[in-house]
């Protein structure tokens, strides 16, 4: 990853808030070293486990060529991939919502739809992918405390909860709960569409099946018309 991307994502924002950027950076470098060593230790442990997985696969299917050049380094790649896929476990959702803005008099639905995600089924550790649709209604009755958030934060909160082993139902509810807790809107609704590898490549093998889950709170739960508006705007049938 280019340094500029990493810098602008977190480091620049936090340095801008610091009264002593140089002292802040020194501390961050120590934390970075500590965390990198922790992750590398985890990678080493996981790679050993993946070597055992391949050995077991060889036992089940003796025709597997363990000397295949394409398998050289595979346990290490599998470990690094899993660390990346599950990186949401190390993300602080409160930090995602650390910057908010006054809602002023805006009291209509705010929606970010078609948010691509990749997650990991906790039953089989096979990925599922799809789109998330997130909407919330600012609570203008709170006056100056009524807040909205930058659109990228809605995408980030989806990634935060998607990048971990789980069920789609839990992911949907947790995204809704995070927005509810951090923004305190008058209502929030989340709809998630998912295509599950554990269903497309094994067992039922239904490649076109899509799972849809929803989680809602506040006025979205109480007002059928508001729910219908949300579903219409994300182009799903009411």
How is this fold's topology laid out?
Elements lengths: L2 H15 L3 H40 L13 H12 L7 H4 L4 E2 L7 E12 L5 E11 L9 E2 L2 H12 L2 E2 L1 H16 L3 E10 H4 L10 E8 H4 L1 H10 L5
Parallel strand pairs: 2-5
Antiparallel strand pairs: 1-4, 2-3, 3-6, 6-7
Helix pairs in contact: 2-3, 5-6
Write a structural description.
This protein has helices at 3-17, 21-60, 74-85, 93-96, 151-162, 168-183, 197-200, 219-222, 224-233, and strands at residues 101-102, 110-121, 127-137, 147-148, 165-166, 187-196, 211-218. By secondary structure, it is of the alpha+beta class. The strands form 2 sheets. It has a 5-stranded mixed β-sheet. Strands 1-4 form a two-stranded antiparallel sheet. The two termini are 42 Å apart. The mean pLDDT is 92.
Task: Give a nutshell description of this structure.
The chain has helices at residues 3-17, 21-60, 74-85, 93-96, 151-162, 168-183, 197-200, 219-222, 224-233; strands at 101-102, 110-121, 127-137, 147-148, 165-166, 187-196, 211-218. It has 238 residues and is an alpha+beta fold. Strand 2 and strand 3 form a beta hairpin.
The CATH architecture of the largest domain is 2-Layer Sandwich
Instruction: List the uncertain runs.
Output: none
Tally of helical segments: 9
Q: How are the strands of the largest sheet arranged?
A: 5-2-3-6-7
Largest sheet: 5 strands, mixed
Radius of gyration over all CA atoms, rounded:
22 Å
Give the overall shape.
flat
CATH topology of the largest domain: GTP Cyclohydrolase I, domain 2
Could you tell me how far the N terminus lies from the C terminus, measured between alpha carbons in angstroms?
A: 42 Å
Helical content (DSSP H or I, runs of 4+): 40-55%
What is the CATH superfamily classification of the largest domain?
Answer: GTP cyclohydrolase I, C-terminal domain/NADPH-dependent 7-cyano-7-deazaguanine reductase, N-terminal domain
The number of domains is 2
CATH class of the largest domain: Alpha Beta
State the total count of DSSP E strands.
7
Give, in order, the helices and strands. Answer: HHHHEEEEHEHEHEHH
What is the residue-mean pLDDT, rounded to a whole number?
Answer: 92
């Amino acid at each position: 990853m280019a340094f500029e991307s990493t810098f602008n994502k977190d480091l620049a924002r936090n340095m801008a808030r610091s009264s002593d950027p140089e002292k802040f950076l020194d501390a961050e470098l120590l934390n970075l070293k500590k965390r990198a060593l922790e992750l590398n230790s985890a990678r080493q442990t996981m790679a050993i486990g993946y070597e055992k997985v391949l050995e077991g696969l060889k036992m089940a299917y003796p025709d597997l060529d363990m000397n295949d050049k394409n398998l050289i380094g595979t346990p290490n790649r599998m470990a690094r991939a899993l660390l990346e896929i599950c990186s949401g476990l190390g993300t602080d959702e409160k930090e995602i919502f650390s910057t908010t803005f006054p809602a002023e008099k805006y009291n209509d639905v705010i929606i970010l739809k078609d948010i691509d995600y990749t997650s990991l089924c906790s039953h089989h550790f096979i990925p599922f992918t799809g789109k998330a649709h997130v909407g919330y209604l600012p609570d203008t009755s709170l006056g100056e405390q009524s807040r909205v958030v930058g659109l990228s934060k809605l995408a980030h909160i989806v990634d935060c909860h998607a990048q971990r082993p789980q069920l789609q139902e839990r992911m949907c509810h947790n995204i809704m709960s995070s927005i509810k807790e951090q923004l305190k809107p008058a209502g929030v609704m989340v709809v998630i569409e998912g295509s599950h590898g554990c269903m497309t490549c094994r067992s039922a093998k239904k490649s076109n099946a899509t799972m849809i889950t929803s989680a809602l709170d506040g006025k979205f739960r109480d007002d059928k018309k508001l729910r219908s508006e949300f579903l219409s705007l994300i182009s799903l049938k009411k």
